[in-house]
Amino acid sequence: MNPHGKTILVTGSTDGVGRWIVSKLAAQGATVLVHGRNRARGERVVADIRNAGGNATFYAADFASLAGVRALAETLQRDLDTLDVLVNNAGVGSAGSSRETSRDGHELRFAVNYLSGFLLTRLLLPLLVRSAPARIVNVASVGQEAIDFHDVMLTRSYDPYRAYCQSKLAQVMFTFDLAEELNTKGVTVNCLHPATFMDTTMVREAGISPTSSVEDGGAAILNLVLSQDGKTGGYYDRTLPSRANRQAYDRTARRRLSDLSFDLTKLGNQRIPEGVNI
Predict the structure, then answer these.
(1) Contact predicate 136/100, CB 8 Å
(2) Distance, CA of 242 to CA of 175 (rounded, Å)
(3) Does the pLDDT value for residue 276 go beyond 70?
(4) Which band of pLDDT confidence, cut at 50, 70 and 90, is reported for residue 213?
(5) 3-state SS track over the chain
(6) Where on the phi/psi map is residue 29: left (φ > 0), alpha (ψ -120 to 50), or beta?
(7) Which of 216, 207, 211, 217 is nearest to 197 (CA)?
(8) Which residue in 164, 235, 236, 249 is the catalytic one?
(9) Which of 16, 17, 49 is nearest to 32 (CA)?
(10) Are 186 and 232 in contact (CB under 8 A)?
(11) Mean pLDDT score of the chain, rounded to an integer?
(12) Quick check: is 164 catalytic?
C-alpha cells in the first residue's frame, strides 16, 4: 500500500515505536492520527511532524478506561470520512509487582493491551469497511501464555509477566477471529511480534536491557502496514510468518475470549460463558 494520502491511526504513538511509525508514515505523505494519554507530549509529536512538512492530528484517550475509548471512537467517527489503517500499538509492559486494575476494575494489562484495542477496533469497523481496502495491524509479542479462563484477571495468583503475556495472546486470538469475519469485506487483519526488547520506555521500566532498536521493530510493523500481498489472519515474528501459542488455534478458546470481550465491553448480548471467572 502506498501511504500517500491515506489516513492512518496509530495508538500509543507519543513515544517509542509508535512515535517512530507515525513520523515515518507522515514523511511518506500519510495523514497520521497520533494517540496517547498525555496531551502535551502528543502535541509535541504533532508539532515535530508538521514542522517536517507532514500532516498529523493528536487524539487523547486513556486506554485504562473503556469510557475513554468510546469517547475516542465517537470523536474519530465524527471527524473522519475514511480510515485506511488502524495500528493497535498502545500498551503497558510487565514492570511492577503488584496487581493493578483499570478504571473499570479489570486487570490493567488485559484492559490496556487487549480489551481497549478490541473495543476501539469494533467501534471503528464500520469506518474501516467503508474505507476498504483497509487494514488492521495488532502489535502483539512473542511473549504469550495461555489464558486461564477460570481466572482471567489473575485475582488468585498474580504475576505481571504472565498478565502481559496473556494479554498479548488475547490480541493474537482476536486477530485470527476478526480476519475470518472480515475476509470478504476488504479489510485485512494481521498481528506481529515486532522485535525483542526494543529500546523503549516500557522495556527500560521493566529493568530489561534493550537488545534491539525502535527502528528494528518499527520496520517490521511498517512491513505489515505497507504490504502489497493482501494476506490476512497472520501472525508474524518480525517480518516472517510464525506460529503463536497453541491456544490461539483453539476455536473453543477463541470463542470463550470473544464472548467474554463482548460482555465486558457491553457491545452485544453475549454473556460470560459458564465456567469463566473474572
Answers:
(1) no
(2) 14
(3) no
(4) confident
(5) CCCCCCEEEECCCCCHHHHHHHHHHHHCCCEEEEEECCHHHHHHHHHHHHHCCCEEEEEECCCCCHHHHHHHHHHHHHHCCCCCEEEECCCCCCCCCCCCECCCCCEHHHHHHHHHHHHHHHHHHHHHHHCCCEEEEEECCCCCCCCCCCCCCCCCCCCHHHHHHHHHHHHHHHHHHHHHHCCCCCEEEEEEECCCCECCHHHHHCCCCCCECHHHHHHHHHHHHHCCCCCCCCEEECCEECCCCHHHHCHHHHHHHHHHHHHHHCCCCCCCCCCCCC
(6) left
(7) 211
(8) 164
(9) 49
(10) no
(11) 93
(12) yes
pLDDT digits (tens, 9 = 90+) for 216-237: 999 999 999 999 899 999 999 9
The structural domains of the chain, ordered by start, are 7-143+156-244 (3.40.50.720)
Q: How confident is the model at residue 45 (pLDDT cuts 50, 70, 90)?
A: very high
Q: Sign of the C-alpha dihedral, residues 150, 145, 70, 131? A: negative
pLDDT digits (tens, 9 = 90+) for 128-181: 999 999 999 999 999 999 999 999 999 998 999 999 999 999 999 999 999 999
Cα 191 to Cα 8, 153, 204, 244: the distances in Å are 16, 23, 24, 10
Q: What angle do CA 109, 190, 209 make, to 5 degrees?
A: 50
Residue type present at position 101:
T
pLDDT of residue 75: 98
